[in-house]
What we know:
By secondary structure, this protein is an alpha/beta fold. Helices cover 46% and strands 13% of the residues. It contains 13 helices and 8 strands. An 8-stranded parallel beta barrel has the order 1-2-3-4-5-6-7-8, surrounded by 4 helices. Helix 4 (114-125) links the parallel strand 4 (101-105) and strand 5. It is globular and about 45 Å long.
Amino acid sequence: MTIYTGSGVAIITPFLEDGMVDYxxxxxxxxxxxxxxxxxxxxxxxxxxxxxxxxxxQIEVIEFAVKKVNKRxxxxxxxxxxxxxxxxxxSTEAERVGADALLVVTPYYNKTTQKGLIEHFxxxxxxxxxxxxxxxxxxxTGQVMTPETIAHLSNHKNIVAYxxxxxxMSHTLEVIRLCGDSIDIYCGNDDINVxxxxxxxxxxxxxxxxxxxxxxxxxxxxxxEGKISExxxxxxxxxxxxxxxxxxxxxxxxxxCLEHLGFSKAYYRLPMTQINDSLSRKLKKEMDNLN
Length: 291
């Protein structure tokens, strides 16, 4: 039940100055990604600022993306929240409007035990009919999902993948050891895409791909083909830029980069704000160097 292999983009949600979703610009970004070879669209995830959206708005953005993509690549909808019933509502609504799969993050703020994580994810998975990508990002949620928990959850027919944004290769390797082929892994940290694919990941869910989709897909493709040396040359070439993308909280820097590329002005919803001028200049300079 592999959803895709290669580069998946954790796409931003463009806003207008008044804070409303800029659907015209979102369509441009979707077409840009597909034209450049991106293999999956991850909509309203962390980078898509879903935590600032009302439920109806979030589902509307998912439905818009599904219609514009029109089955050309999979659309994976972010529907994870810290309440299981709420997550089920968002997940079933995303399924209703045509999402191909779901990205469900670990509960945040109201931290739980590993038993609680298992019950939370199984409760959601029992109530949908499309694949689920588990999402572990302890730097944002304060919640670690252990390899043993992931291995247990991989036995559920609807839980087919894991986005690993722990940044810990030892964690990744233990997940691979315990799970084998029972779950697909996607790298959630752009600075280690190639090492994770070399270890067995199917590809990436990438912030970098917002700005360099063709490059990220080429890097993933080479790594998946076992051409690790060639893939690592790309990884290292873009390493400085990748670090700058996370010098302030995501998606603040990447939105500014898209503005530098000629897409619409970077607008955010609070508490996200404009990045500082120094970082903006550094990003622009590095983009000029890379291009």
